[in-house]
């Protein structure tokens, strides 16, 4: 497909704007996102640099890409597999190239500590000999145990990467699905053109490229939410009861995985699904009850994982490590 001159100009300008974003952000130290005690009530310099660079360069770049295609193509130019591959390559380039396979925040090392413990078959470690010099955010010593009090979901995801010597690799593999899921959901809601733009804008978003390339739970959370609602959509469209139950269980697996990643968001997602089911209850009560039961089957294993982890760390299945006195 040959591009007209107007499209080439818009895409070229968008490329220059994105290059300007990277140069400007790097110059201002945008990768220094570690928060100190003085930063808890305001944005540290690194985050301010990201905001300024995004407003000055990234948003105009996405506007230029929108202008390049007008109302969008009649069909999506890339398959889901190609879009996923491009997203994965982009995240790998940022993680290993720009960030040097390191972390840009203060909870990254805590997640890595937790992942290495889990990879070795442990939830805690003996306390260090000198607590003063080993003091670090999100790590604590309680009851003779040294552990990270963060939720274990992200660290569990990292375990295969720890075994391979590439701890962040599983995170990149999951995060690369975000543009694909964004495109699929937008296409279902608003058609092919909307799906194209959702995928393209997600792929070129600096928030996706930075957040997806770091050891943070937010992009995996977004991927799980997208997967859950895709499964809910398939569940609602299914006709046969076995197919409905399978998609409901798949949605439950995605929603349940959120509980070991971010418990607050799990509660919000559960409320959203409950509201979705309540609106359909009068029209099809038996179907809704079947879906809800299948969803609980999908959620249950993750609840078990979290309770087992809590018990291994604190000695009580119901005691959340972060809420220890």
Can you walk through the features of this model?
Strand 1 and strand 2 form a beta hairpin. By secondary structure, the chain is mainly alpha-helical. The protein is flat, with a radius of gyration of 22 Å. Strands 1-2 form a two-stranded antiparallel ribbon. It contains 13 helices and two strands. Helix content is 67%, strand content 2%. It folds into three domains: 70 residues; 60 residues, no CATH class; 109 residues, no CATH class.
The coarse overall form would be: flat
Q: Could you list the spans in which at least 5 consecutive residues all have pLDDT below 50?
A: 34-41
Span of the ends, CA to CA: 63 Å
Helix content: 55-70%
Rg from alpha-carbon coordinates: 22 Å
Total domain count: 3
Estimated structural class: mainly alpha
- Relative strand content: under 5%
SSE arrangement, N to C: HHHHEEHHHHHHHHH
Number of helices: 13
Query: Biggest sheet: strands, sense, closure?
Result: 2 strands, antiparallel
**Tally of DSSP β-strands:** 2
The largest beta-sheet arranges its strands as 1-2
Question: What layout of secondary structure does this protein have?
Answer:
Layout: H1 5-27, H2 45-69, H3 80-98, H4 108-119, E1 139-142, E2 145-148, H5 153-164, H6 169-175, H7 177-190, H8 192-204, H9 206-211, H10 218-237, H11 241-259, H12 263-281, H13 285-314
Antiparallel strand pairs: 1-2
Helix pairs in contact: 1-2, 3-6, 3-7, 4-5, 7-8, 7-10, 10-11, 11-12, 11-13, 12-13
């Amino acid at each position: 497909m040959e591009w007209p001159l107007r499209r080439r100009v818009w895409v070229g300008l968008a490329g220059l704007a994105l290059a300007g974003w990277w140069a400007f952000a790097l110059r201002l130290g945008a990768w220094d996102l570690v928060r100190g005690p003085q930063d808890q009530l305001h944005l540290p310099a690194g985050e301010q640099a990201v905001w300024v660079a995004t407003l000055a360069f990234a948003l105009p770049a996405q506007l230029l890409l929108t202008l390049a295609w007008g109302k969008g193509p009649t069909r999506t130019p890339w398959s889901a597999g190609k879009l996923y591959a491009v997203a994965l390559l982009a995240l790998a380039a940022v993680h290993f190239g720009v960030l040097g396979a390191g972390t840009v925040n203060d909870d990254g090392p805590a997640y890595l500590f937790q992942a290495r413990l889990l990879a070795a078959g442990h939830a805690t470690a003996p306390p260090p000999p000198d607590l003063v010099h080993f003091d670090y955010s999100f790590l604590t010593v309680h009851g003779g145990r040294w552990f990270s009090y963060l939720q274990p979901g992200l660290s569990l995801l990292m375990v295969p990467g720890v075994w391979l010597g590439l701890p962040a690799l599983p995170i990149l593999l999951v995060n690369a699905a975000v543009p694909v899921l964004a495109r699929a959901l937008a296409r279902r809601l608003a058609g092919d053109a909307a799906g194209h733009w959702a995928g393209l804008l997600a792929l070129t978003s600096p928030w996706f490229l930075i957040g997806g390339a770091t050891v943070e739970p937010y992009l995996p959370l977004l991927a799980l939410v997208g997967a859950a609602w895709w499964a809910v959509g398939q569940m609602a469209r299914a006709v046969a009861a076995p197919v409905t139950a399978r998609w409901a269980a798949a949605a439950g697996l995605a929603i349940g995985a959120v509980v070991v990643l971010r418990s607050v968001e799990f509660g919000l997602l559960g409320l959203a699904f409950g509201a979705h089911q309540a609106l359909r209850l009068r029209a099809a009560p038996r179907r809704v009850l079947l879906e809800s039961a299948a969803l609980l089957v999908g959620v249950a294993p993750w609840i078990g994982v979290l309770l087992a982890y809590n018990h291994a760390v604190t000695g009580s299945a119901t005691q959340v490590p972060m809420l220890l006195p």
